[in-house]
Amino acid sequence: MLAEHSHRLLGATIGMLTLSLAVWIWLSDDRKWMRMLAAGSLVAVILQGLLGGFRVLFNSLEFAMIHGCLAQLFLCMLVSIAAGQSAWWFREFEFPKEKGARNPIKRLGLAICGLIFIQLIIAAIMRHSGAGLAIPTFPLTPEGGVFPEIWNFPVGIHFAHRAMALVIFVSYIYWASRILTCKVLDVRIKSICWLGLILLFSQVTLGAMVIWTYRSPIPTSVHVLNGAFLFALSWLITFFQFSPDLKSLNGLRNQAPESVDFSKVSTGQSRP
């Protein structure tokens, strides 16, 4: 009961903070895309509250799954707002380009984020269907093979979660290698990528621990939390690749403020 009530109180607090954030952005930031992002986050948090209420009122697993997945999207909206409001956003960066002026890092990032979100949906279905231990051994099945001998819905959704994890792992390693070997990308984006790799390997380890400990609450909870962090961090890297496109929408607003040479000001050589 304490955990459930704390969840409701935190949800209400986040809702009020999001409302305050949206109002502040609309009053202080004239970038249209930032205002739309703020409005979208406000709509998302209101929907989250409604879905949470419906999940309790109707005791619906379907509402619980949607509630959990929307929370991931809401987190990415907040990450986008934080990135767009940072001083780092207003700096000039170089971005890799292929033929046709397309950014391969951005396209791969969108694909990675899409795969992770699909994995989150699969995980929500698996978790709320009680299929977390449908295949109770890792990395092989109880029969000692890669594929289960007996198939049903719990086994199928559990195996889909493992298969998608492998796809994401390989894809993420390739994407990270492209980022880390790119000569024009800022070193801070590469630093974020290294953190993403740490989260990736931690996620695989935690997933194995969930099976080995028979879904002990701590590794299971940390596995879910780490997955959300990995999704948000991957989106942060990808979102920064949209910086040139978004800056071009409001050229004047997105220019970084000119620095003042205080040595010239003191000698009267600088104009206000």
Can you walk through the features of this model?
With 272 residues, the chain is mainly α. The chain folds into two domains: 1-85, no CATH class; 96-250. Helix content is 71%, strand content 0%. It is built from nine helices and no strands. It has helices at 2-28, 32-58, 61-85, 104-128, 153-180, 187-212, 217-240, 243-247, 262-266. Helix 3 (61-85) packs antiparallel against helix 4.
Would you summarize the structure shown here?
By secondary structure, the protein is mainly α. The protein has helices at residues 2-28, 32-58, 61-85, 104-128, 153-180, 187-212, 217-240, 243-247, 262-266. The protein folds into 2 domains: 1-85, no CATH class; 96-250.
| Sequence stretches where pLDDT stays below 50 over 5 or more residues | 252-272
Give the % helix.
Answer: over 70%
Straight-line distance between termini: 61 Å
* Rg measurement, Å: 22 Å
Number of spatially distinct domains: 2
Break the fold down into its secondary structure elements and pairings.
Layout: H1 2-28, H2 32-58, H3 61-85, H4 104-128, H5 153-180, H6 187-212, H7 217-240, H8 243-247, H9 262-266
Helix pairs in contact: 1-2, 2-3, 3-4, 3-7, 4-5, 4-7, 5-6, 6-7
Keywords:
272 residues, mainly alpha, 9 helices, disordered C terminus
